[in-house]
Amino acid sequence: MWGGAAAVAAALVTLLAANPCAWAGKTGKGEAAVVIAVSPAGNDHAAGTLQAPFRTLERAQQAVRLANEAHNVDVVLEDGIYRLQHPLVFHARDGGRDGYRVCWKAAPGAHPVISGAMRISGWRLFDRARQIYVADTPPGADSRELWVNDKLASVASMEIPRSSARFTTQGIVLNGKSYDRLARLPEQDRLQVVSSGFFTLRISPVEKVDGNTLVMQQPAWQNNLWGYDTIEAPFHPELAHLYLENSLAFLKQPGQWYLDPVAGKLYLRPPDGVDVNKMDVELPRLTVLLSVGDNLSALTQDLEFQGIRFSHTTWLGPSGNQGYASQQSGSYLAGDDPIYPSDPIKSCARGCPEFESRRNQWSQMPASVQVSAAQRITFDGDIFAHLGQYALGIGNDADATLSATGLGASDIVVRASVFSDDAGGAILAGGVLCDAHHPGDPRQIDRDLIVIDNRIHAVSKEYLDNSAILSTYGAAPIILHNDISDVPYDAIDIGYGWGIQDPGGNSNYRNFMHGYRYPQNPVYQTPTTYRGAVVASNRIHDAKQIFQDGGAIYNLSASPGTLITDNYIFDNHGRIALYLDEGSRYIMVRRNVVQDPTGEWLNINTVHRAWPLRISPDNTATGNWHDSSKIGGLWTNYQNDLILDDHLVVQGNWPNQAQQIMKDAGIEPSAGPVAYEEAQPDERH
């Protein structure tokens, strides 16, 4: 049995389950809550009672501020869609004050939706032969996503064989007469190149088409040309794909769409079997629905969201000249670099010292729902569906937050919620910049995140390189009893930094990659904030659908006290299940069950060329069950990387202990039904 931090977390969540919307305040404990009611059919000039509800969430927020100093407050949302024109921003005055708490929750039996989209109607036939319809949109309205009947639709695209593409520092030269037509396309600056590699998904917008050359926008293109798994030199190019997207000329398949913001026209070929006169088409207008937290000196606190669906956002960053030069799970390069190589295709397609100078300067994808500079924030029984990037961001870097105050998230609980049909991953916790791993202010440390009993299914549908759950730097993140399925990349990633920020640095990074020659990359002598993670009793299946790199459960860098235990991983597409990547230290991998006979059940990156330097030592895998004999990396006494009490299962003869772990993994019965019925609630006007 596992215990410690995980047992404490389980006890806490059991308490919360028994007392929903009931953080125990200093003076608010046991007191009846003031009830503020909201309904799409309400009136903001009404009293805000259950009999006379307000109409908007903003009006309810104003009423909360008058009551939360002396009372617990419940904001009750009636059924319907609450369409936001601007993000809802919660500061210290919006949470529980003086020991009280504030809970925003669905009315009994209701399924309220907070949406950042407008509904598109008025469809008319545009091209009978191609079965394309058109509708009007507000001029200037732009989006990277569109949802049709609660399903993420695909933007119009065409695949380009890599054998037909020659990459230059200015763009892509295409070989073949079939590409001559591209130079005649209108709205050429709406085109974008999308590339899937070994572990990255990269997006670079086109400036223009000059003959047979796609001239790319900068600096997006240059940032996609250097580093690792680059757009022109992906690891294992035979597995990579290259697409040209976002033109009306490419719109040929059912479910595809194209948006012309200048003309204010949305073109759509409806999915097969969908009645054009009855379909619900949602065009997102907002990037952020909810921003919780503003100031490290005045934390937003004691705030809960229960039974609410968050839907319909878009992140337009990749459509601009920065593109999306992905590096790892939502982190990307932006801006110009003063020491950028003159020809990165020749000198830096597999890394170079100049690229290493940027390690502490990556950016993060902003999430649809954001929490930072906050404590005791709970999401319980919510639905994060149909969102345009990472769904929930917790304690991310300042540049990824609407408030511009990053990190500083503590005692955050995400419980019994559903994440589904999202363009990006489910949960992005922690930052990647210097203040995340070595904060200048101790208040910046992310700590005590609990992610428990959630169902995560069909996420990272556009940003394929997003982990379903990524927790970077932070103290004691706990991820347990979740069910994660249908994801293209990793299910759970913990840690960050490849050991570069750990005490004494990374000898591989110093001796072979020369990254410490730059003053912006100091050698730290103190540990990072990452420690004490628990990944336990998760049920992970149908992960690793696309990318070869990474693992269903994956760790980066040192983390004293970290435990990966009692997880059940199956149908992993013959790829790595448990992966300790570069710099991993002090990790215990215990009592996991891996059912994937053609895959690699365990892997460690000890960096073969630098193995005498002991890059990833002091890890133990003990008491695991698996039906594959494949192991990656150097598990040796010299590294003190040990495999103990190991159990290879043959012919499906799983012993009772393994079967019990299989049975117990995933969502606990006490969490109740954790599901999402994909049905649009009635919209009242």
Task: Explain the overall architecture.
The chain contains eight helices and 55 strands. It has 685 residues and is mainly beta. It has a domain at 117-284. The strands form seven sheets. The protein has a 13-stranded parallel sheet, sandwiched between helices. The longest helix has 14 residues, at 5-18.
Please summarize what this structure is:
The chain is mostly beta strands and 685 residues long.
- What is the distance, rounded to the nearest whole angstrom, between the alpha carbons of the first and last residues? 54 Å
The coarse overall form would be globular
Main sheet makeup: 13 strands, parallel
Rg: 25 Å
Number of helices: 8
Sheet/helix structural class:
mainly beta
Strand content: 25-35%
Topology record:
Elements: H1 5-18, E1 34-38, H2 57-67, E2 73-77, E3 81-83, E4 88-90, E5 102-106, E6 113-115, E7 117-120, E8 124-127, E9 132-136, E10 147-148, E11 151-152, E12 154-155, E13 157-159, E14 165-167, E15 171-174, E16 192-196, E17 201-210, E18 213-216, H3 220-223, E19 241-245, E20 256-260, E21 265-268, E22 281-284, E23 290-292, E24 300-306, E25 309-311, E26 325-328, E27 331-333, H4 344-347, H5 353-356, E28 363-364, E29 369-371, E30 374-380, E31 383-385, E32 392-394, E33 409-415, E34 418-420, E35 427-429, H6 434-437, E36 447-452, E37 455-457, E38 469-471, E39 478-480, E40 483-485, E41 492-495, H7 507-511, E42 534-536, E43 539-541, E44 553-556, E45 558-565, E46 568-570, E47 576-580, E48 585-590, E49 593-595, E50 600-604, E51 619-622, E52 625-626, E53 630-632, E54 641-644, E55 647-648, H8 656-664
